[in-house]
């Protein structure tokens, strides 16, 4: 055991002697967590300052009310050029989208729900599809709110009712009995609007459109999920990435430089050397997790849902990537080839597992491939302890998968090393 510990200390000293390695192993994860945590700190509010153009070809009171609703939304930054100029600005990428309000938009219900001819046109930048989807929600909400304002106008409502009467009278597909039923309904509605008390009538439309409250899905933890809680698992994985890749390359360096063979001449065996490497990698990853944990608690005031499960998830994730480190070092005979191949493999794991792109934004056909990535299970296990508040039974699956991947990669890597050294 002393031999393994001495070798582990030696590996740690070699790591600390290289300033570049120190930065990427210890500094990069903290910068990653701070950077992305700050970016997503207002993610719950959606995009902000989205620049769009609004072209009003209707020039009605309703379209003016609609534009006023859009201008009051803090997520939008609205300009009002002509149609050609607006579309040109979208094509050049200067604005996210152009909204064209066509003639007839202010005609009321018929214009809003007519599926044959839309009275709103959107020219969206294809490279900003997420912003485009968010914008459509804002436009629909503003349209309902503007229409709600019109409900309080008795004269406008009576004009709408008259339009419905005219449609029924002109309809050829209705028999006399059905026509009379609709006409009686509209006559009654018209009388109700005309004879109702104005204050009571207007008060009936007070309140917000689509008003809803949010239910907390987390057990025990009652506070809101912060952006740093969401980004810290990714930051921890990136730190473990850097550590695993660094130690894998150090094994290749010692093998190509002859240090590995010289160590074998001494009173240590191959198992001692590899165990020392693994112990040093494991200890370094522990230090990384501790640095991030202390930063999260002291600087970002980030709560941890279950401390014991957090420790367990961290240890299983580290053991998984220590095993992968042993496999990565067999991917090349030189530092350059092993480093390139190792980082390429880790990048693919990160992309498939949600470490770079959220799984929700991946194509449906690609999502099943995320199951083979230890990054997915590492992030899920850390999230389960930090803010999902998973039970021990629920945590069993990701933890077992992480250990299985690590053990398999470790055994395969040891076998490959023995074959390459023969």
Q: Which short descriptors sum up this protein?
A:
422 residues; mainly alpha; abc type-2 transporter like fold; 2 domains; four-stranded mixed sheet; 16 helices; 4 strands; elongated
Describe this structure in words.
- By secondary structure, the protein is mainly alpha-helical.
- The chain has 2 domains: 2-41 and 227-421, no CATH class; 49-152, abc type-2 transporter like domain (abc type-2 transporter like fold).
- The protein is built from 16 helices and 4 strands.
- It has helices at 2-16, 19-39, 61-71, 83-91, 109-113, 129-151, 154-170, 176-195, 198-203, 227-257, 259-265, 270-298, 307-328, 335-353, 374-388, 392-421; strands spanning 50-56, 76-79, 97-101, 120-124.
- Strands 2-1-3-4 form a 4-stranded mixed sheet, with helices on both faces.
- Strand 1, helix 3 (61-71) and strand 2 form a beta-alpha-beta unit.
- The protein is elongated and about 105 Å long.
- It starts with a helix and ends with a helix.
């Amino acid at each position: 055991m002393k031999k393994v510990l001495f070798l582990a200390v030696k590996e740690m000293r070699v790591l600390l002697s290289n300033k570049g390695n120190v930065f990427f192993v210890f500094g990069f994860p903290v910068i990653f967590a701070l950077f992305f945590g700050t970016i997503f700190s207002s993610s719950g509010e959606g995009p902000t300052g989205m620049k769009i153009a609004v072209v009003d070809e209707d020039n009605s009171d309703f379209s003016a009310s609609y534009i006023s609703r859009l201008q009051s939304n803090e997520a939008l930054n609205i300009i009002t050029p002509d149609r050609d100029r607006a579309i040109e600005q979208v094509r050049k990428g200067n604005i996210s989208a152009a909204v064209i309000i066509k003639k007839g938009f202010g005609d009321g219900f018929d214009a809003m729900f007519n599926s044959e001819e839309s009275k709103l046109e959107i020219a969206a930048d294809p490279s900003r599809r997420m912003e485009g989807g968010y914008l459509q929600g804002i436009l629909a909400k503003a349209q309902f709110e503007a229409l709600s304002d019109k409900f309080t106008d008795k004269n406008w409502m009576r004009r709408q009712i008259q339009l419905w009467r005219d449609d029924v009278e002109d309809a050829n597909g209705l028999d006399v009995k059905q026509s009379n039923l609709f006409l009686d309904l509209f006559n009654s509605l018209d009388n109700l609007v005309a004879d109702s008390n104005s204050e009571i009538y207007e008060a009936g439309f007070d309140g917000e459109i689509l008003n809803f409250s949010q239910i907390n899905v987390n057990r025990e933890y009652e506070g809101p999920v912060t952006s740093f809680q969401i980004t810290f698992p990714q930051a921890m994985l990136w730190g473990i990435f850097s550590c695993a890749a660094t130690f894998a390359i150090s094994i290749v360096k010692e093998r190509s430089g002859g240090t590995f063979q010289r160590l074998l001449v001494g009173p240590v065996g191959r198992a001692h050397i590899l165990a020392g490497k693994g112990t040093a990698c494991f200890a370094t990853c522990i230090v990384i997790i501790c640095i991030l944990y202390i930063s999260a608690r002291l600087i970002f005031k980030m709560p941890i849902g279950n401390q014991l499960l957090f420790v367990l998830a961290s240890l299983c994730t580290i053991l998984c990537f220590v095993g992968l480190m042993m496999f990565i070092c067999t991917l090349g005979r030189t530092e350059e080839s092993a480093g390139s191949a190792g980082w390429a493999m880790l990048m693919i794991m990160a992309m498939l597992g949600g470490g770079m792109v959220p799984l929700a934004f991946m194509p449906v056909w690609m999502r099943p491939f995320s199951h083979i990535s230890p990054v997915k299970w590492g992030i899920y296990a850390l999230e389960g302890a930090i803010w999902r508040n998973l039970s021990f039974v629920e945590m069993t699956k990701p933890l077992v998968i992480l250990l299985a991947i690590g053990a398999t990669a470790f055994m395969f890597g040891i076998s490959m090393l023995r074959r390459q050294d023969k």
